[in-house]
Design a protein that fits this description.
It is found in: Membrane. By secondary structure, the protein is mostly helical. The protein contains 13 helices and no strands.
């Protein structure tokens, strides 16, 4: 399997997908996402418990000296352009980049698609346990932080917190599903995919800017604690590690080279046998006696 991954990584084309494969994957991915969304909503805990968990996380961050949410959120709220920019990123990139990468993998990198899909869906499913058993309020709901996404809603398509409450939209979203942050988790998933596909070292490093930017934005907007982001990243990386080993994605280079040598070794003998057959044919042809020269005294028959 490691050899297959190496071969697939070096080619630019993908296998032709059948209609049945496409339908199966769409049903699987969309079905699981719908189930995830419904279960995530059902996992809503009480406000008191969620706020208690949030304060507990903040206490741990203060002990670790990483409680940077309030300072960053306050600084963001002082600049309208920054509020709008971070809100657009928060509301759109999460839902555009991840599905796009998944679709491209499905059609162009089928061997990488399998472990990538497994890692993504596995992490998303496991995140539900956090929402069920550890409902956590985001910073913006504690009263000491600014809901910058809500404040900048006039510049976008998303409703403000007041509009959500008036329309009842708040009842169809889980407001206390902060731990772990799957905004960060999905961004890390994308960065792993791109880092695996790209060859140049600087490019492999650069693609992690997407995950880093998303992490900063979920904190700047007051939607997640730093530890929410750490948990989301760790969850996805753990699922990537498992899926990578399951599908041979992380096979050592020596093992990959050995498997490629075996693959080449199966082809070369056949080529040699074909060459030997051709040589034997030439040898047999060389043993056939040449025809005797024609007798000059014998005239050719007249037409």
């Amino acid at each position: 399997m490691g050899g297959e991954m190496a071969v697939e990584r070096s080619t630019s084309g993908g296998a032709r997908r059948t209609r049945g494969e496409i339908i199966r994957e769409v049903v699987l991915v969309v079905g699981l996402y719908v189930a995830y969304s419904a279960t995530r909503l059902a996992a809503s805990g009480s406000w008191d418990v969620a706020k208690s968990h949030a304060r507990g996380i903040l206490d741990v961050e203060r002990w670790l000296r990483i409680d940077i949410e309030h300072a960053l959120n306050t600084a963001t709220a002082q600049h309208t352009w920054l509020e709008v920019a971070t809100s657009y990123w928060y509301q759109s990139m999460h839902y555009l980049v991840t599905p796009t990468v998944l679709v491209v993998l499905f059609f162009r990198r089928p061997l990488l698609y399998r472990p990538a899909r497994t890692a993504l869906l596995g992490a998303t499913f496991l995140a539900l346990f956090g929402y069920f058993f550890f409902p956590t309020a985001p910073p913006r709901l504690l009263g000491q932080y600014v809901d910058t996404v809500s404040e900048s809603s006039v510049y976008g398509w998303w409703p403000s917190a007041a509009e959500q409450a008036a329309s009842g939209a708040g009842s169809v979203t889980n407001q206390v599903a902060a731990m772990p942050s799957m905004h960060v988790g999905w961004a890390v998933w994308v960065s792993v995919v791109l880092a695996y596909l790209l060859r140049r070292r600087w490019a492999k490093v650069a693609v992690w800017g997407y995950a880093a930017t998303t992490t900063a934005i979920v904190v700047l907007t007051g939607n997640h604690w730093v530890l929410d982001a750490v948990a989301g990243a760790a969850l996805v990386l753990g699922c990537w590690w498992f899926a990578g080993h399951r599908y041979g994605l992380w096979a050592p280079r020596a093992q990959v080279d050995a498997e490629l040598d075996d693959l080449v070794g199966e082809v070369v003998p056949d080529t040699r046998r074909l060459a030997a057959t051709n040589d034997d044919g030439l040898a047999l042809a060389s043993t056939v006696d040449s025809p005797p020269p024609s007798d000059p005294e014998v005239e050719a028959p007249r037409a």
